[in-house]
């Protein structure tokens, strides 16, 4: 799973370039996210618009990333595709994360 | 990786090694068959979720201590995908499928990082059944291909 991070004001935007976050890639995803979010920034936005599929291990990895950020930093998600959205809805994790339809471009200059 | 896929318009048989990477490749092969490509997007997504959870569960638990193969058969009948999956791994604990009840979502530090798989399978499938036969785990269920039940 290739991830690309970009600092935008108070946000780090991480774009997932692979098409799936699954059992075979969950640990690598978690480790890469940990590296990319070392730079302190109050908001971390994960752009998932290219991720067509996420399984329960992938979901667990996304939750683990948010927990690792700690209480003072937030993990926000953006661009969930239909199947990914279904997994978040059925596990009620859609109530835990702030989920954006698109990358919050309007907030690009904040901070 | 040795994938044998049969595709007789409305039936598919696939045998894969019980390993994570083989599950990923096997799912890709299944999703690419004419049968699954003929399903509406929603039904195809449901099939990918449920099959992925069922297969990864076999890899992680049934084949936790030894290698083996997973046999998958899918049949389309009256807008339903009839799925049968078998393996020669360890039996389900207590001979029963997990309940799949979600842990309560409380504080950030207590959020569950697992235990979603059987909840997803149970939410999206019908007539889920499991039994042991001649040293094999036999799992079967049906998926609505037109409108997901959840």
What structural keywords apply?
heterodimer; A: 111 residues; alpha/beta; Transcription Regulator spoIIAA; five-stranded mixed sheet; two-stranded parallel sheet; disordered C terminus; B: 150 residues; alpha+beta; Heat Shock Protein 90; six-stranded antiparallel sheet
Description of the molecule:
- Chain A has 111 residues and is of the alpha/beta class.
- Chain A has one domain (3-107): Transcription Regulator spoIIAA.
- Helix content of chain A is 31%, strand content 26%.
- Chain A contains three helices and seven strands.
- In chain A, strands 1-2-4-6-7 form a five-stranded mixed beta sheet.
- Mean pLDDT of chain A is 92; it is low at 107-111.
- Chain B is α+β, with helices and mostly antiparallel strands and 150 residues long.
- Chain B has one domain: 2-Layer Sandwich (Heat Shock Protein 90), CATH 3.30.565.10.
- The mean pLDDT of chain B is 91.
- Chain B is built from four helices and six strands.
- Classes of the chains: A alpha/beta (111), B alpha+beta (150).
- The interface between A and B is medium-sized, with 27 and 31 residues.
């Amino acid at each position: 799973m290739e991830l690309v991070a970009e600092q935008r004001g108070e946000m780090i935007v991480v774009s997932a370039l692979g098409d799936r976050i699954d059992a075979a890639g969950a640990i690598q995803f978690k480790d890469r996210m940990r590296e990319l979010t070392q730079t302190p920034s109050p908001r971390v936005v994960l752009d998932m618009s290219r991720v067509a599929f996420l399984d329960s291990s992938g979901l667990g990895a996304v939750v683990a990333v948010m927990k690792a950020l700690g209480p003072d930093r937030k993990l926000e998600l953006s661009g969930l595709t239909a199947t990914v959205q279904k997994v978040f809805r059925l596990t009620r994790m859609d109530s835990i994360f702030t989920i954006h339809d698109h990358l919050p471009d309007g907030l690009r200059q904040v901070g | 990786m040795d994938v044998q896929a049969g595709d007789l318009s409305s039936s598919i048989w696939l045998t894969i090694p019980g390993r994570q990477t083989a599950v990923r490749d096997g799912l890709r092969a299944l999703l690419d068959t004419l049968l699954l490509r003929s399903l509406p997007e929603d039904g195809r997504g449901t099939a990918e979720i449920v099959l992925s959870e069922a297969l990864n569960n076999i890899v992680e638990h049934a084949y936790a201590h030894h290698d083996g193969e997973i046999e998958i058969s899918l049949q389309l009948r009256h807008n339903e995908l009839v799925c049968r999956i078998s393996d020669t791994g360890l039996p389900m604990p207590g001979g029963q499928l997990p309940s799949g009840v979600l842990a309560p979502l409380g504080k950030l530090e207590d959020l569950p990082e697992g235990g979603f798989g059987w909840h997803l399978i149970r939410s999206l499938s019908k007539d889920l059944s499991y039994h042991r036969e001649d040293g094999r785990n036999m799992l079967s269920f049906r998926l609505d291909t037109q409108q997901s039940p959840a």
